Amino acid sequence: xxxxxxxxxxxxxxxxxxxxxxxxxxxxxxxxxxxxxxxxxxxxxxxxxxxxxxxxxxxxxxxxxxxxxxxxxxxxxxxxxxxxxxxxxxxxxxxxxxxxxxxxxxxxxxxxxxxxxxxxxxxxxxxxxxxxxxxxxxxxxxxxxxxxxxxxxxxxxxxxxxxxxxxxxxxxxxxxxxxxxxxxxxxxxxxxxxxxxxxxxxxxxxxxxxxxxxxxxxxxxxxxxxxxxxxxxxxxxxxxxxxxxxxxxxxxxxxxxxxxxxxxxxxxxxxxxxxxxxxxxxxxxxxxxxxxxxxxxxxxxxxxxxxxxxxxxxxxxxxxxxxxxxxxxxxxxxxxxxxxxxxxxxxxxxxxxxxxxxxxxxxxxxxxxxxxxxxxxxxxxxxxxxxxxxxxxxxxxxxxxxxxxxxxxxxxxxxxxxxxxxxxxxxxxxxxx
Length: 433
Known about the structure:
Blueprint: H1 2-7, H2 10-31, H3 38-46, H4 64-82, H5 91-103, H6 114-126, H7 135-140, H8 145-153, H9 167-195, H10 203-220, H11 238-258, H12 262-269, H13 278-282, H14 284-304, H15 311-320, H16 330-346, H17 354-363, H18 367-373, H19 375-389, H20 393-396, H21 403-422, H22 426-432
């Protein structure tokens, strides 16, 4: 069986690994201590507004078992798209899947994803392309999922009122989904020019600027009061999250070693992460091994700083894994983490505050900065991201789940030209040495 697996293409192995993650989430739902709340919890999750930051573990909003079920169902939809005829899985697919399931712990749900998938399908028809070629964009488009929940259940009423599903809400949800699905592919392609590949969360700036426009039209331009940006958090589930994560990541390490990834993993760790495709450069074994090693590294960090393992905290563990196949490693992310810690020493927010815990996830998207220009540059990038991340939601109303990725793009826009102008990449220093 192992020999057959080794003969499969990198694309097929990635699809199998991502499908296994979905199965793990569904099993996690069945093993959660509040199993009796699984379906009622899921019902609460899909029937409420979901702008930043709503903890799907919290009993007022969902439940632990309901959150895992929601993640599993969303992951299943993503997997079904991946296995469409003609669809291939790459580092970009891993990123799209991990971001989508990660945010399914706080913001994305099995109801609010469909308008974006429909919008991307319409984009495929307009461009006369197969939908299977655009499934990554369908997943990335769900960054604006809170907008759909907002129009379905509250808009245009005041922040403290709900009206339930209405014909107007359904129409607005479809319009938003079509608008986002039609424009995200073009914006994502252009975003590379904005940050030159130094923000791994490439869809972050695209979603951020698009959400800024939609938010302004829906609220600011016509004078409606926007809902407050405020976290609704429970007490967390440290034991469940750690146990689930450790099992998943150890299995990835085992599979990566069985696929022969051990011999190339040190090379992968030394990669700058800039415009990288780890599967193509170092093989699928080393890539899967990075899933496990990087995942344990993230869990260890969040335990070390004393983070509360709420839905958002656990969700961003998976979001951080988004680019473990395309740029992120423990070595090039560590300077970003150090930068965040330094920022917390002088800033108003503690290192384990929920907004900072979530923000660090997307600050890791600046890993190529430390990979290309060295750890000091990475630390500076981390400090800058820390200072900026809590201010950015105000400009998009908290409806852009990729807030931290948007922030990374802004940091890269300011920092990278300065680095290019005054400093040389580490690779040039190594050649001279």
